[in-house]
Amino acid sequence: MSRRKIIAGNWKMNKTPSEAKALAELLKPLVDNPDVDVVYCVPAIDLLPVAEVIKGTNVMLGAENVSDQDAGAYTGEISADMLVDAGVKFVIIGHSERRQYYREDDAFLNQKVLKALEKGLTPILCCGETLEQREAGVTLDWIRLQLKSDLQGVTKEQAASMVIAYEPIWAIGTGKTATSDQAEEVCGAIRKLIAEIYDTDTAEKIRIQYGGSMKPSNCRELLAKPDIDGGLIGGAALKADFADIVNYNK
User: Fold this and answer.
1) Residue ranges making up the domain that contains 123
2) How far apart are CA 117 and CA 41, in angstroms?
3) Structure pTM?
4) Is 104 known to be catalytic?
5) Which residue of the set 95, 97, 104, 129 is catalytic?
6) Annotation says 25 is catalytic
């Protein structure tokens, strides 16, 4: 099956609203690639200004977080309904930084996944191992545990519409990158796991991104692999270089 590539920028906690608007304006003519799904996952305060800039373009809006609750006394949270009303289509769930710094465990992330799907948002569900886990040879066991927990109660139809981002924690923001063969090995194993949990058809439909320091210099080699359907881009998403990744096929 030919899966459409998806390149998503994770801006993390960067860019004020005015800076975010300027970056989206800068990128607008550069990321116009009809063959690729392009997503900007931006801080909550930047959603509306970025939405205004990308209106009518090929770029879709993504959020970096979502509450597991609909509404109420949850100071500082942002609900799925709020995101949908702002024009958001995708939401990152389970990024390693949320898992590490904010102690978000798999049971909690599972509730976020279910809430996002219930409200019509597409989760970009992250998974990945630490350097210690990779060196101990438990990478695939760890990712299996993460995904089986995070996907509890998710139907095969819902799963098929999702995006999974494999992000080796040791390669995030470090400049280190998994080799294309290492990345393909894990992404291929994730696809096999999805087939095991659901079926082969679901596994063939789900899109799997690589999310560890993908940049213009390595994106073509990574995206040529059969089980890598895109990238979740960190640092490179904050500059014009992001367009080189979006246009990897040109």
Assistant:
1) 5-246
2) 17
3) 0.97
4) no
5) 95
6) no
